[in-house]
Specification:
Blueprint: H1 7-71, E1 75-76, E2 88-89, H2 90-94, E3 95-97, E4 103-106, E5 116-121, E6 124-128, E7 150-155, E8 162-163, E9 165-173, H3 188-193, E10 198-209, E11 219-221, E12 225-236, E13 247-249, E14 261-262, E15 273-274, H4 278-281, H5 285-293, H6 297-300, E16 306-308, H7 317-325, E17 330-334, E18 337-339, E19 344-345, E20 353-357, E21 360-363, E22 366-374, E23 378-382, E24 388-396, E25 400-409, H8 412-420, E26 423-434
Length: about 425
Amino acid sequence: MKRAPGTASKQAQQGAATLVVVMVLFLVMALLAAYANRSLMFEQRIAGSYYRASLAQEMAEGGLEWTVAMLNGAGIDADCKPMDSGGTRFADKYLAVSPVDRGTRSRSTPATTVAADCVRTGTDLVCRCPDANNRTAQPTTTVAGNLVPSLGVALGTTPTLHYGNFQATSQGCTDSSVDNCSAGYSPTEVRSQGAIAMAAYKAAFALIAAVPSSPVSPLTVKGHLTTAGSGGLGLHNADPASSGLLVVSGEAEPALVDARMDSMPGTPPSQARIFDDEALRDMSADRFFRTYMGMAASRYRNHPSLREVSCTAGDCGPDLQAAYDKGQRILWVEGGMTIASNVVIGTVDDPPLIIVNGDVVLDGPMQINGMLVALGDLGWTNTGGLTSLITGMLLVQGDMAATGDMDIHYRQSIANQLRNRQGSYARVPGGWKDE
């Protein structure tokens, strides 16, 4: 059967048209797939950016919390790790605090310079705490298949001198070197090209003084003071700000040797002693402690910088000395304390505060440069002829019995140190902002 003329040509044209339509449909489907894939990639990039931004923010916030912990810690080395001796406290490394008026400045130049940094490798935080102005750029750390975030902290970042407070800046970075995020090292476009996120948080910190209202005499005894033996109790205070006061007690005056009393020039020793102080005698134990320490003893134990010392072998002298060598400056001894060894605890320029929640026995030669607080009775005996000395202040909540030869020298500089330089640091509510 013969086909009509032109039929084959029409079929060929119809096939070509179908092919064109199919190719157009394929092209449209390919464009739709490409567009959908582009949107998916865009969303993945947004999710990745959010993740990196959140990670940088968490590192920055963690840096502020890490700063609080380090400020209230003991002596550390260049790797921010505690040392048994020879370390420097974090606050002393990076802050210059005046013991006279609590004026606080950064030791870094300029103050905005990152002083210490950390990098998180897995679950570990590896930190560096070099001396001020000796920090080098943070090296790069790689962990296969993982982001390695870092942080850097600058202390005292405002140029204005502050009294008892300062501002710290924490930078969080998704790169393993915070210097690649810092504005001083890497401009914004470089961070963008490297897909690096950065967050900076600032917070104000303030000092909670170890002794807000220190005694103005070398010896304060709420209960009875008794003396016995040769030599006698020596009290010395030539500080005009305290009027040369030697002793304050809530009970009757014991037998004291005037030759062992030194007050301001021209002041008779009898005029520098206060006994039968009714206000002191009638104070409750809680109020007595709060008068000088600013809070109840139960709350004071929560001081972030306070460390409890466990005494061994019946003699707490070596344990206190070891705690001081570690950089601990607020020491708490629970349940009584005896010092029966010839130790030297503390220095005049860096004194400790020692609080004993119980009775205290000082037996023989020893030296304490700081403030000793006994929340029970205190017995002090020294009959061997060697030096038994407290340079600073002695505060006794119960009774005190002194037998033999011992001395207490009042130093206003120690009171200033305990009021303006020693203590704990805390973040100031409302003193936080991000950048």
